[in-house]
């Protein structure tokens, strides 16, 4: 197993390098780079040097798109534009910029945001708690609901219970996450009906004044709607996966033998079937967490005004904030590849009989 893990770890390097090469190459053909974004945000007014070095969010908020006009039409001197290119490193060839960027990333030096007076690492650490909250709670709730439901559906396969629960989860899966989030806001956040939950944020304004229990309750009060909205689409896949895994195991010979020995249905189900059927479900936990962590956070964070990694990445892409874009891409790509290895280790942990090395040979 050690040799297999070592090979997987070594494959992380070329895979991550390929991800960075592809994305860096694509950005070279996207119009409206950081300099164009800065010039577009100025609109011929304001203090240029404050916009570049001041780190205010004004440049980020106003830079909604590129400018197709020739930059000289703004009346800015070529010397000033050349100075901008030098300051941002665009006076160097693309291959040289990529090489310097990867050398810094290998040392985990991700630089500083173009439009915020903060390093990329500080921004990620600042926004991480929101995304972890959504990803972790959504994954845990999905498992807590889907596994018992999937087992129940497998035991009662073909019954009315199986039919109407399948219809319900498929309908939930078909509803877009952003539409369900808006529906929750309208119904329960003071939109048109009840004002039960807060409209935005993870904590109240008087958070520091609350007791420990008050802080916990306030936190749970704020995350209820975002977590429900980000979890709704996870139920279908996980529930049906659990059901099908149990159905496959129930039909195997060892189950028939266990029943013939006089074991009760509960003893057979949880003493024999459960471990084998849950292999693929439990081993998929890291991957599901990462998919929820990265996948649904952008829309959910935007709708509920949560300042997390999803909004950070979206705003960085709009403003062409390359240090934030490539820095987070590198970190998240590395995390995803490591999680793939952890998923394999989870398989071995759940069932030690699995040997990836013998399967490769």
UniProtKB/TrEMBL annotation:
Keyword Ligase recorded: no
Localization: Cell inner membrane; Cell membrane
PROSITE patterns assigned to the protein according to its UniProt record, in alphabetical order: ABC_TM1
One Pfam assignment: BPD_transp_1
Principal cellular location given in the protein's record: membrane
Protein keywords: Cell inner membrane, Cell membrane, Membrane, Transmembrane, Transmembrane helix, Transport
InterPro entries registered for this protein in UniProt: MetI-like (IPR000515), MetI-like_sf (IPR035906)
Membrane spanning residue stretches: 9-30, 130-149, 170-194, 219-242, 277-304, 324-350
Gene Ontology cellular component terms for the protein in this record: plasma membrane
Entry keyword Cell membrane: yes
Membrane topology listed for this record: Multi-pass membrane protein
GO-annotated biological processes: microcin transport; transmembrane transport
Domain ABC transmembrane type-1: 128-347
Family: Belongs to the binding-protein-dependent transport system permease family.
PANTHER family xref list: INNER MEMBRANE ABC TRANSPORTER (PTHR30465), INNER MEMBRANE ABC TRANSPORTER PERMEASE PROTEIN YEJB (PTHR30465:SF66)
Protein name, entry field: Microcin C transport system permease protein
Annotated source species: Meinhardsimonia xiamenensis
């Amino acid at each position: 197993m050690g040799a297999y893990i070592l090979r997987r770890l070594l494959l992380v390097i070329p895979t991550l390098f390929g991800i960075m090469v592809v994305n860096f190459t694509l950005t070279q053909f996207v119009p409206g780079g950081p300099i164009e974004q800065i010039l577009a945000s100025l609109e011929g007014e304001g203090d240029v040097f404050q916009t570049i070095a001041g780190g205010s969010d004004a440049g980020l908020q106003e830079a909604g798109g590129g400018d197709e006009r020739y930059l000289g039409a703004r009346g800015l001197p070529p010397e000033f534009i050349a100075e901008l290119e030098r300051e941002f490193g665009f006076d160097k060839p693309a291959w040289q910029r990529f090489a310097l960027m990867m050398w810094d990333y290998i040392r985990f030096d991700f630089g500083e945001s173009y439009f915020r007076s903060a390093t990329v690492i500080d921004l990620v650490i600042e926004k991480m708690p929101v995304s972890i909250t959504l990803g972790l709670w959504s994954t845990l709730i999905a498992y807590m609901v889907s596994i018992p439901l999937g087992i129940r559906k497998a035991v009662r396969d073909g019954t009315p219970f199986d039919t109407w629960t399948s219809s319900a989860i498929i309908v939930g899966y078909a509803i877009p996450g952003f539409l369900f989030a808006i529906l929750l806001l309208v119904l329960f956040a003071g939109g048109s009906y009840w004002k039960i939950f807060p409209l935005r944020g993870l904590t109240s304004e008087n958070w520091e004044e609350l007791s420990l229990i008050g802080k916990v309750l306030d936190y749970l009060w704020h995350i209820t709607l975002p977590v429900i909205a980000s979890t709704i689409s996870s139920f279908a896949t996980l529930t049906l996966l659990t059901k099908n895994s149990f159905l496959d195991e129930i039909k195997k010979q060892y189950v028939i033998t266990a029943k013939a020995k006089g074991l009760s249905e509960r003893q057979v189900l949880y003493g024999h079937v459960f471990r084998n059927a849950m292999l693929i479900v439990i081993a998929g936990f890291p991957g599901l967490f990462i998919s929820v962590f990265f996948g649904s956070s952008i829309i959910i964070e935007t709708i509920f005004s949560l300042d997390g990694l999803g909004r950070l990445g979206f705003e960085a892409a709009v403003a062409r904030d390359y240090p934030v874009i490539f820095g987070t891409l590198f970190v998240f790509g590395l995390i995803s590849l490591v999680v793939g290895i952890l998923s394999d280790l989870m398989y071995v942990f759940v069932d030690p009989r699995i040997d990836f090395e013998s399967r490769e040979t």
